Model the fold of this input.
Amino acid sequence: MTQNGKPPILVVDDEPEILYSLRGLLRKDFSFHAAQSGYEAFRVLEQQTMHVVMADQRMPGMMGVDFLASLRARYPDIVRLIFTGYADLKAVIDAINRGHVFRYITKPWDPDDLQLVLRQACQHYQQAAQCQRLLNDLQGYVTALFGPGPENASGACQTGRPHGSRGSSPRPGRR
Done:
């Protein structure tokens, strides 16, 4: 979240009218950032942390699928969406397989549906970040209990058995 409590999103589209329209629609609920190309988007991402990036498929210089695939390699935690006014099945398949997009959105979009999808994408980002924090906490606890070492990363204790394993002894209450 940003200081104003709104999740930061970046919209990438080469058409200034689209960016202007989306800024008006989304600025109330999101910290809205815009870029007119994939290259400009990467400059924005060097300066700002984003939770969600939504990119147009057809842009000069770098197609949306290529941008999202590169985005995934550089910033794997960002939730990615693609939108387009063209019904191109290959683009949809590429977006899913190469860019690992969260959703594919068609132009023109329904304003309520678009806002819902963006809220879901932000929620997905928050849930993934929370899982990562919990995993880091757990890893810290395991290290504090058993000390650093690759054998402890898998949950095995010094006996070689998984943590909590009792070997061949019966469980309490069972005979």
